[in-house]
């Protein structure tokens, strides 16, 4: 399926700014060969909280399916899902992760509906379940603007931080405040337009941490085909996939170390010239 090039405008996108080397502690050993080398994400567990995933798509691979469902009018609980993807969004994200980290273990938790809307309580239940299950990475290409949920979501993000569960979250496509991407305990992601799945930029002006491909990205779509999409939602799984490769090589890394390594290997960091040695 082909798509014509489009001009896409949304918030929190790269301006192409470079980052001087003195804003980051960059030991010479931190390069991509050291960060992930030939790693494929083997043994790294990734949870995709989204609209579900089509596990039959050849570009997605094996995915364990779960859903956050309301039971008996009471609280939300996470259980097995036999529906799959109801909107395409989750399949796209899972496929991007699989492209970059083909051997990672992927689990889907469906919380969004066909129109990409969802209940905040379902998102909280899914995230709590993912933290309790100690996933290495949680891809959240979604957010909420509800201030009533902010405190509980912040507490969950902090729990994830201390539990060694890294949340990779999409910045909102509009210039508004939403969560969890605004929390410091989360690796937040915006977009750039470079057509290279491994091209990464560190942001010199947070709250967005890094930029990844998010404009005219070809992704798998339910039914076995592909689609060209744009948005910070699709930049986020690029970062999750690269993080999975880092974690295969450095399994004891947590969110702080992952954020530093991703920044250190970013393509927009000006490299220090090699130091001369004196006899």
Word description of this protein:
The protein is an alpha/beta fold and 279 residues long. The protein has one domain: Peptidase S8/S53 domain (Rossmann fold, 3-Layer(aba) Sandwich), CATH 3.40.50.200. It has 6 helices and 11 strands. The strands form 2 sheets. Strands 3-2-4-1-5-6-7-9-8 form a 9-stranded mixed beta sheet, with helices on both faces. It starts with 31 loop residues before the first helix and ends in a 15-residue tail after the last helix. The relative contact order is 0.21.
Q: Kindly state the percentage of residues in helix.
A: 25-40%
Instruction: Supply the CATH superfamily name.
Output: Peptidase S8/S53 domain
Main β-sheet, spatial strand arrangement = 3-2-4-1-5-6-7-9-8
Q: Count up the domains.
A: 1
Task: State the end-to-end CA separation.
Answer: 61 Å
SS strand fraction: 15-25%
- What is the mean pLDDT? 92
The CATH topology annotation reads as Rossmann fold
Tally of individual helices: 6
Radius of gyration from the CA trace?
Answer: 18 Å
Question: Any key phrases for this structure?
Answer:
single chain; 279 residues; alpha/beta; Rossmann fold; two-stranded antiparallel sheet; globular
SSE map:
Elements: H1 32-35, E1 45-50, E2 63-70, E3 76-80, H2 89-100, E4 105-110, H3 120-132, E5 137-140, H4 147-163, E6 166-170, E7 187-192, E8 201-202, E9 210-213, E10 217-221, E11 225-229, H5 232-249, H6 255-264
Parallel strand pairs: 1-4, 1-5, 2-4, 5-6, 6-7, 7-9
Antiparallel strand pairs: 2-3, 8-9, 10-11
Helix pairs in contact: 2-5, 3-4
């Amino acid at each position: 399926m082909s798509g014509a090039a489009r001009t896409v405008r949304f918030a929190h996108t790269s301006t192409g700014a470079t980052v001087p080397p003195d804003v980051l502690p960059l030991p010479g050993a931190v390069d991509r060969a050291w960060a992930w080398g030939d790693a494929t994400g083997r043994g790294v567990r990734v949870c995709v909280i989204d609209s579900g995933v089509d596990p039959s798509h050849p570009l997605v691979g094996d995915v364990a399916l779960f859903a956050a469902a309301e039971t008996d009018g009471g609280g939300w609980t996470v259980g097995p899902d036999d529906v799959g993807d109801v909107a395409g969004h989750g399949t796209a994200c899972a496929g991007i992760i699989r492209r970059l980290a083909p051997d990672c273990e992927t689990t889907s938790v469906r919380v969004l509906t066909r129109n990409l809307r969802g209940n905040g309580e379902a998102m909280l239940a899914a995230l709590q379940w993912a933290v309790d299950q100690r996933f290495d990475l949680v891809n959240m290409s979604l957010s909420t603007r509800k201030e009533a949920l902010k405190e509980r979501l912040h507490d969950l993000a902090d729990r994830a931080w201390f539990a060694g569960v890294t949340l990779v979250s999409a910045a909102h496509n509009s210039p508004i405040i939403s969560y969890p991407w605004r929390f410091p305990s989360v690796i937040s992601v915006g977009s750039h337009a470079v057509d290279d799945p491994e091209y990464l930029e560190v942001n010199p002006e947070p709250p967005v941490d890094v930029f990844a491909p998010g404009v005219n990205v070809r992704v798998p779509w339910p039914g076995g085909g592909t689609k060209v999409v744009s948005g910070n939602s699709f930049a986020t799984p690029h970062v999750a996939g690269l993080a999975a490769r880092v974690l295969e090589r450095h399994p004891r890394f947590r969110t702080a170390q992952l954020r530093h390594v991703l920044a250190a290997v970013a393509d927009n960091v000006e490299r220090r010239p090699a130091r001369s040695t004196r006899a």
